[in-house]
């Protein structure tokens, strides 16, 4: 596969909501989840700065709460936050309409859960003809479910790329990354990446 082209990319952040994993859940590795949320928020900021469309989904926001604040804070006002009741976004006409309205053919997915909502979304969008890329370090499922989800997606031809890889695909030239960092100092150096 070729590199991601920012002119043909949309970012979709799936169900990274404040109450999705209540504190009583003992199977959730909190440090890993926090890093995934940070990576998704960073990508949302990068996408917004590059004028890449961002769509955020929320599963049952009344029960799972709103999207994590750090992600919402990274978004441009034009980003859409849409509810969903289907595990996969291909089963949500309003979300599909918003995605198709971007005119983009590549969908970069982050969010939860790798093996369910992200997985169903990736496979459904692929079946509709989109190029789908799942950000491996910006997706989460508890325990071994993350790895199981990634293996299923890879077996079906879904690309898995780390957040750092997405960044450099969207900014593939040295002068572009330097200009981006200068214009967006908070986004050029995430604390856990060596960019």
Automatic annotation (TrEMBL):
Instruction: List, for all copies, the residue spans of the domain called Isochorismatase-like.
Output: 9-161
Protein name from the UniProt record: Isochorismatase family protein
InterPro entries noted in UniProt: Isochorismatase-like_dom (IPR000868), Isochorismatase-like_sf (IPR036380), Isochorismatase_domain (IPR050993)
Q: Which domain of life is it from?
A: Bacteria
């Amino acid at each position: 596969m070729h590199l991601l082209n920012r002119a043909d990319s949309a970012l979709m952040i799936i169900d990274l909501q404040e109450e999705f994993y209540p504190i009583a859940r003992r199977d959730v590795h909190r440090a890993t989840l926090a890093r995934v949320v940070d990576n998704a928020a960073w990508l949302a900021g990068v996408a917004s700065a590059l004028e890449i469309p961002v769509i955020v989904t929320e599963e049952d926001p009344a029960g799972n709460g709103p999207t994590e604040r750090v992600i919402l804070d990274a978004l441009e006002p034009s980003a859409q936050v849409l509810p969903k009741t289907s595990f996969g976004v291909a089963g949500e006409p309003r979300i599909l309409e918003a995605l198709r309205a971007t005119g983009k053919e590549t969908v970069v997915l982050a969010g939860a859960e790798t093996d369910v909502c992200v997985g169903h979304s990736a496979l459904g969008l692929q079946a509709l003809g989109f190029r789908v890329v799942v950000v491996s370090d910006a997706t989460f499922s508890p325990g071994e479910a993350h790895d199981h989800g990634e293996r299923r997606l890879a077996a079906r031809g879904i690309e898995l790329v780390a957040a750092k890889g997405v960044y450099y695909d969207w900014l593939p030239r040295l002068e572009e990354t330097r200009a981006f960092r200068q214009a967006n100092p908070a986004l050029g150096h995430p604390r856990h990446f060596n960019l």
